[in-house]
Design brief:
64 residues; mainly alpha
């Protein structure tokens, strides 16, 4: 009777650790994408003829 509870507790710990790692990976991906958006915005702003479509996309990605 106690073995299933122990196994369930261990599985729960493993699941929570896996979820935590996936959250960290997603945070890293989001940070990389935000940096890419900043770079695209900076390049577009420095262009001789900035593309309003790019600026609109950048503004839409920053909305909460």
């Amino acid at each position: 009777m106690i073995l299933p509870r122990i196994l369930a507790a261990i599985m729960s710990l493993l699941d929570s650790a896996n979820l935590r790692n996936r959250v960290y990976q997603q945070q890293e991906r989001i940070a990389s994408l935000e940096l890419a958006i900043e770079d695209i915005e900076r390049i577009n702003a420095r262009s001789a003829s900035p593309n309003p479509l790019i600026q609109g996309i950048v503004e839409n990605t920053r909305k909460p």
